[in-house]
Design a protein that fits this description.
The complex is a heterodimer of chains A (about 400) and B (about 110). By secondary structure, chain A is mostly helical. In chain A, about 70% of the residues lie in helices and about 0% in strands. Chain B is an alpha+beta fold and about 110 residues long. Chain B is built from 2 helices and 6 strands, in the order βαββββαβ. Chain B has helices at about 15-20, 70-80, and strands spanning about 1-10, 30-35, 40-45, 50-55, 55-65, 90-95. In chain B, helix 1 (about 15-20) runs antiparallel to helix 2. The chains are: A mainly alpha (about 400), B alpha+beta (about 110).
Chain lengths: ~400, ~110
Amino acid sequence: MNAADTAFVLICAALVLFMTPGLALFYGGMVRGKNVLGTIMHSMVIVGVVSLVWAVIGYSLSFGTDIGGLIGGMDFFALNGVGLEPKESVPNLPHLAFMIFQCMFAVITPALISGAYAERIKFSGFLLFSILWLIFVYSPMCHWVWGGGWLGTLGALDFAGGAVVHMSSAASALACAIYLGKRSGYGKQSFIPHNLPLTVIGAAILWFGWFGFNAGSALAANGLAASAFTTTHMAACAAAVGWMVVEWIHRGKPTTLGFVSGAVAGLVVITPAAGFVTVMPAILMGLLGGAICYGGVLIKHLFKYDDALDVVGIHGLGGTWGALATGLFATKAVNELGNDGLFYGNPGLLWNQFVSVVATWAFCFVMTMVLLKVVDVVVGIRVSSEDENKGLDVSQHSEVGYQL
Amino acid sequence: MKKIEVITRPYKLDEVKEALTTAGIKGMTVSEVKGFGRQRGHTEVYRGAEYQVDFVPKVKIELVVEDALAADIIKTIQSAARTGEVGDGKIFVSHIEEVVRIRTGETGNAAV
């Protein structure tokens, strides 16, 4: 067990935890004022509830002994056997440190989906959905990629969660947007962000916390962590600038929302690649990612689904581009436990990445549709139109965000 | 007594207030409002989507004056608030039936 690694990973776990309240503010500022608390509640309540589910069963399903390449066993049910001593596969950290670090990833992933069902989901439905999603979508995905399951065995690379966190939440968000339908008044009324300074604070917290997310995934206080930290920051910067330039040309002015959305898109793009690529490719990935995700938020108008806060456009397209770009730019020179990509003479990795993209989108989309139907039947998933007009704050929580 | 309601540019509030107090007006009520007439709004852009915002922020000033003073007060307001550009606003004048000072119970012109 290594003291420096343990200290580092624990601090990174705290940084990743901070991302979820950051997400609450990022999303909260973008919805209409009457839904600000409802939106914040989605992220905050997920912290509380999903952490508990993770401790009881999620961790075991994700990292327990592999069953058929598809799911983990019940060895770690209720954290049985997860103690102060390291586990075999991660010998430098107390097992609990690894578990609690992973917990924070399990928490933010379902919270990301809340951007798609914002402003119209029923709280009880949201709660049941999030619990089921953690068990039936996140845990299998986490197991497939990181827990000894088939995607990891196949050789698909995902350093910090391009598939496990971003593509999975985006595919699920798409299912939610389609199943729940458009917000009342969509297309006729203008839904504009009610508090962009809040969104910027949230974006800054996400950027800060992401260093825990990506650098922490090195699971050690070493050169790889420094490399992942650097690629993460530079990709975010490049994507923010990339989005800003594209928007400036397309719409005539650079916007605040555009700049921070670009930064988030860059952070998403670099997530699967952070510990596998060098800095200049990371910058290129970020620049292109900013432009791609800008297009991503426009396509929802083309396909006519109401992805309220652009989870699909940013996490879906960003995560997909990041996963495939990993297949282009990965190099063993950065991380010998990784692989070489197409531009380093190995086209095979790109194929593995492509398989992981298709498998993630297909599994998460379909499974989420099933869960939505189940939840809808059991407690109902969408608020009544009267409650939607009153706003979630008043109708779901009997609270008002601003006493002006 | 006449009620004078002024809708004009927010930044003109101080100028109008100074002009009115110089002219002897002892009180007024001010609120922040939105509206449009011939002055159109502006375009906002969020994540690539354009939104036309028609309503323009304005300030509404309400005051009640004795009938005899109304015409002069209106001229005072107009010269303070005018810029010559579209969007200067409007003044509405209506008849007030009764005014009561709550503290003393005075009514009519004595209460204005």
